[in-house]
Amino acid sequence: MSFYISTLLVYFFVDVLLAWALNLQFGWGGIPNFALIMFQAVGAYAAAVVSLGPDTGAGAFQRYVFGSDLPFPVPLLVATAAGGILALVVGMFALRRIRRDYQAAILLIVSLIAIQVVSNLVGLLNGSNGLTGVPKPLSGVLAGLTYDGYQWVYAAWAGLIALGVYLLVARLGGSAWGRALRAVRDNEDAAATIGLNPMGLRMQAFVIGGMIAGLSGGLLVDFLSAWSPAAWGYAETFAVFTAIILGGVGNNWGVVLGTLLVQVIFLQVPTFAPQVGYTGLIDALEWVLIGGLWLLCLAIRPRGLIPERRRTVAPPPGVAATLTPGPAAAAPSQGVSQ
User: Residue 69, SS3?
Assistant: First the structure.
């Protein structure tokens, strides 16, 4: 039971990082990032190849590029940077001034192309077989722990990272930058007329979200010790979308609730349940449930269980004084004095 709970905790913290990344991009910036899982994947691959060592050494049974054995926690930093760099490259042509439904289509197509490229170019990242044998962080230092004990330490480490990311996104959301980003989301043309740069703001949100997604990928591959194209199908992105729509788009705590319901209770818990019916039935029913939840939320409660709250900002003291109405002017006289 202890092993089961620690596993769910790690998955939850990784998934909530991914959900916060999408909430920053879609919930605040209005970017329909249907390629979200691609940024988690690039973080996972980046962390793996800089941890496995050269593919002529211990990883000689698999082929990949940039093989090295950087010490912990450098692979996580590399994963974060990889997610940001990919977001910058993709965003330069995907976030141009075109309709957002077209942007969603472009991002989904890019993700599908990336899966095919990685799956078929064996010399790049070992093709469809993926990478395995990724060393566990600090496994030598923590060698005295049992496997169960190590998982609890890793869950605590993942929770610490999630807390740090929450503080970051909460600070960004309440800042002038966050308010400007939501203004661009709500009315891009009106935001431009008051001096905001919609393209620049959305690109910044896209890159920051890509970095958080890359970090989640690095954290996940260190836990699983393996990664393959089968782990980042487009359906995974729709599960994250369902989580933030169910919880409340634009609300950080709503995103946490949606992630707990969708990614842990509806997707992870059934994987530990006994097999019912024919092989694959439970997996198929999970995605039917996810699709039904999305449709139900859009029909009944489109703002989610914890909607984004309306933010009010008090003007500076000097400005407030000028906006305070003065005493009422005297009523004009009814006649003219002689």
Answer: coil
pLDDT means per 10 residues in the chain (338 residues)? 85 95 95 94 95 78 87 93 96 85 91 92 90 85 78 93 96 93 91 92 96 96 91 85 92 93 80 67 75 85 85 62 52 44
- Which residue in 205, 135, 142, 214 sits closest to 173, CA to CA? 205
CA–CA separation, 78 vs 43, rounded Å? Answer: 8
Which two three-digit tokens encode residue 72? 């912990």
CB neighbours of 312 closer than 8 A, spacing ≥ 6?
none
φ/ψ of 132, rounded to 5, equals -140, 170
For residue 138, give every residue at least 6 positions away whose Cβ sits within 8 Å of its Cβ, in sequence order, or none. 72
Q: Which helix (H) or strand (E) holds 227?
A: strand 226-227
Strands (E), 45-177: 131-132
